[in-house]
Each structure stands twice: as C-alpha cells, then as structure tokens.
C-alpha cells in the first residue's frame, strides 16, 4: 500500500511526461557530437526503467502510453537492431518489450 501511494504521488506530480521526454536522446548537430553517447544512453535507460516502475497500475500504464512512450521505446529497439548495442540500450530493450506486451 505504501509503495502504491508513493507511485501515485510521483505520477500525480507530472513525472510521466518528463520521463517520456527523456526516452529520446537530444538531437545534436553533427559537429557537436564528439564521443560516445554514454550519458544519453544512461538517461534513456533510467527513464525507461522508472516508467516501468511507475506502470504498476493499469491507469498508469495508459497514462504512459498516452504520453507517447511507445514510439520512443520502439526506436530503442530499432537502434539495437541496427547494431548500436550497449548495456543501457539492452536494459531499455527489456523495458520496451515489457511495455509492448
């Protein structure tokens, strides 16, 4: 009951739209991309993981879908399929698969 109350408070505070925005790495101009995307991957992974934790109730799941999370999660799956694999993306893939099911 306590955990459910905390999750409700987080969802009611507007966390879902903020997390969904961070499921997609910011688009940077090519000249600004100088190294690996480690931090962006971690932000995407953390956002996907947190959304998974918030999705304990059907109404939260629907809110996450309505906020547009699925296309971003599918994009993570496609990126992995294209060979851009990392530990962060592998975790996000599990989250994306859970959301789609």
UniProtKB/TrEMBL annotation:
Superkingdom of the source species: Eukaryota
Protein's name in the database: Uncharacterized protein
């Amino acid at each position: 009951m306590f955990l459910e109350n905390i999750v409700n408070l987080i969802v009611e505070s507007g966390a879902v739209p903020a997390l969904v925005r961070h499921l997609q790495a910011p688009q940077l101009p090519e000249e600004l991309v100088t190294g690996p995307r480690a931090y962006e991957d971690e932000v995407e992974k953390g956002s996907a993981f947190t959304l998974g934790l918030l999705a304990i109730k059907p109404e939260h799941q629907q809110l996450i879908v309505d906020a547009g999370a699925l296309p971003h999660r599918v994009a993570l799956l496609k990126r992995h399929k294209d060979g851009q694999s990392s530990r962060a993306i592998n975790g996000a893939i599990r989250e994306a698969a859970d959301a789609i099911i």
